[in-house]
Amino acid sequence: MFCIYSNSSKGNFIVSDCKNVTKTCYFDFFRYLFKAISKMQNIIFTICSVLISIYLLINAKKTDKFYLLISIFILYLFFISAISCFQCDRFHIAFFPLLLLIFANLKKKQAPLKNQTLSKINT
């Protein structure tokens, strides 16, 4: 359980390992900024991926089989990341594009509902 927490709540370790070779004065600021962005991205995308995958699996009868398979794959990667601790976003970054694909599908399904509601209001 600790490994899942560790991999889900840390930023990319490569940002921390960067060295200020040219001795610029703003290096530390940008290293801190990019590490914070990486950490927040990992936390937000991981939470959204897991929650949406669980939601799609609960509503399996209404969900397209392709997106069910993606949900299972996301949860598989999430839980398999417990094998290695302190890997940061190395395992989770693999399912971030799949989350965007699921978001696009959910948005596409919402669009017809929104258009129907607007047409009812206008008439």
Summarize this entry quickly:
With about 120 residues, the protein is mainly α. Helix content is about 70%, strand content about 0%.
Which terms summarize this structure?
123 residues, mainly alpha, 5 helices, flat
Summarize the SSE layout with pairings:
Layout: H1 2-9, H2 13-16, H3 27-58, H4 65-80, H5 96-122
Kindly describe this structure:
The chain has 123 residues and is an all-alpha fold. The protein has five helices and no strands. The chain has helices at 2-9, 13-16, 27-58, 65-80, 96-122. The chain is flat, with a radius of gyration of 19 Å.
Kindly provide the radius of gyration, computed on alpha-carbon positions and rounded to a whole number of angstroms. Answer: 19 Å
> How far apart, in Å, are the first and last alpha carbons?
55 Å
Task: Tell how many strands the DSSP assignment holds.
Answer: 0
What order do the SSEs take from the amino end to the carboxyl end, as H and E? HHHHH
What's the pLDDT, averaged over the residues? 78
Query: Sheet bearing the most strands, described?
Result: none
CA-based shape:
flat
Which percent band covers the strand fraction?
under 5%
Question: Count of helices?
Answer: 5
Low-confidence stretches: none
What is the structural class?
A: mainly alpha
Helix content: over 70%
Q: What oligomerization state is this entry in?
A: single chain
